[in-house]
Design brief:
Structural class: alpha/beta
Strand order of the largest sheet: 3-2-1-4-5-7-6
Helix content: 25-40%
Largest sheet: 7 strands, mixed
Strand content: 15-25%
Number of strands: 7
Number of helices: 10
Order of helices and strands: HHEHEHEEHEHHEHHHE
Distance between the termini: 32 Å
Amino acid sequence: MKTEWDYTALADAYLKRPDYADAAIDAMLSIAGAEKGDKVCDVGAGVAHLTLMLAARGLDIVAVEPNDAMRAHGIKRTEKLANVRWHEGTGEATGQPAQAFDMVTFGSSFNVCDRQQALKETARILKPRGWFACMWNHRHLEDPIQAQIEAIIKERVPGYSYGTRREDQTEVIDASGLFGPVVHLDSRVMHEQTIEECVEAWRSHATLARQAGASFPGVVGAIENYLQTLGTSSIQIPYSTHIWIAQLR
């Protein structure tokens, strides 16, 4: 399925993206009162980073992903799990039945949707008083290594912006009029990556790829060159998982 954001060339590298903080996921499910066997639609499931975390907590998952290459990785990673099924669809058109889910999640995918249309679709497929949640991992840009990477990017991609993925989602969710008070959660998590894994993760960065255009390989190459000057085989990367969660009115 073709979408405005084409992840086909980024799918292999996406496997190296970090998971979300366990504490943030547990807090989200606690707020929603989620129990084992509850039905969750994980929208924009990609290569199954969030799907695997939800499945490990005993939830019954329908993973919706439009991109064939991403979905193929996700299917392979979850093929032994009886509580995960995959479906081709988008946040605006999930292809799921009405009032079928206790919760709908967007892991690093809400920003690539028409967010108001995605909220309407979420409200349609949620059971009464079901829960919406969207989330992203944010690198701590004040970390010295990450600050240098930011400098490399902004030197080569003038006006570079992370866009809606680093914005507070409260106003957008409130504007839909479909959900109750929005709760924002965040939890720090430290990921250790080899230099090779870190570079591969940058090759999956869709926001940077879109804005860098033809310069994207050169930007990633400059990041790789910098990381190799550190004289270490791996680095610690500080992240925070940010989640916005709200209940259907």
